[in-house]
């Protein structure tokens, strides 16, 4: 189970950089890890939204720029947060590894400036983790939606897993060859950390392709609104288009007419949370079958 984290759930910012590693995320993650341990599942902790934002798009709930790489305070906080996570889970057998940054450095960013700095940042994070945890693997994602392995040099950690994301690619070997070359050259394991969101037939072919080469996989996402290409489909609540229109509007010049009243917006979002409960979702049996699994 790959669990995406938002840094704000784990950090209470303090004055002068005196941040406290507190917040509701810690107990929520503890509870989920305990469930996985009991069920015999393994957990990948994925920093999906790093301090400042590591992607430069809305995936990280940032400002639209990968400020994690530009602002020293955000960089230090990212390293410190990973150290705190490693201290907490260093002896936890249910943890498979630490996915350090989700999809760092989007193609819309200054690649020439940022790409050479990615592995240096990874080294800094891994050094902090290894100062307290020698047990768990670290997952190093490529740049540009976790696709670009050209940013990597010789592996620097003996327990590193190199991870990429790939959607809608041809389910043939040529789609993976660059990653296979890297793995074979350095004798390192690979994981496709995100894939899917297409047809069940494509899912099965792409999954089998990865299994043919011994590459582990995570299909993404687990749930989505009115979707056949996820494990669980959430029924879209009435009025959701009002929320979607606001989310897709230009925040630099918002139109007041687009915004629902606060009470109305709260009711729509509450309905969404209720619809997202497992018992209220639709299990896509065909999708599960495409992953080699069976719906109960």
CATH fold assignment of the largest domain:
TIM Barrel
In spatial order, strands of the major sheet run 1-2-3-4-5-6-7
Helix content estimate? 25-40%
Radius of gyration: 20 Å
Number of domains: 2
Q: Can you describe what's shown?
A:
There is one protein chain. The model has no long low-confidence stretch (mean pLDDT 95). A 7-stranded parallel beta sheet has the order 1-2-3-4-5-6-7. Strands 8-9-10 form a 3-stranded mixed beta sheet, with no helix packed on it. The protein has 296 residues and is an alpha/beta fold. The protein has 2 domains: 2-226 and 283-290, TIM Barrel, CATH 3.20.20; 236-280, no CATH class. The two termini are 19 Å apart. The protein has helices at 24-39, 67-70, 72-89, 111-130, 143-146, 177-186, 200-212, 240-247, 262-275, 285-290; strands spanning 2-6, 43-49, 95-99, 137-141, 160-165, 190-194, 216-217, 223-225, 232-234, 282-283. The chain is built from 10 helices and 10 strands.
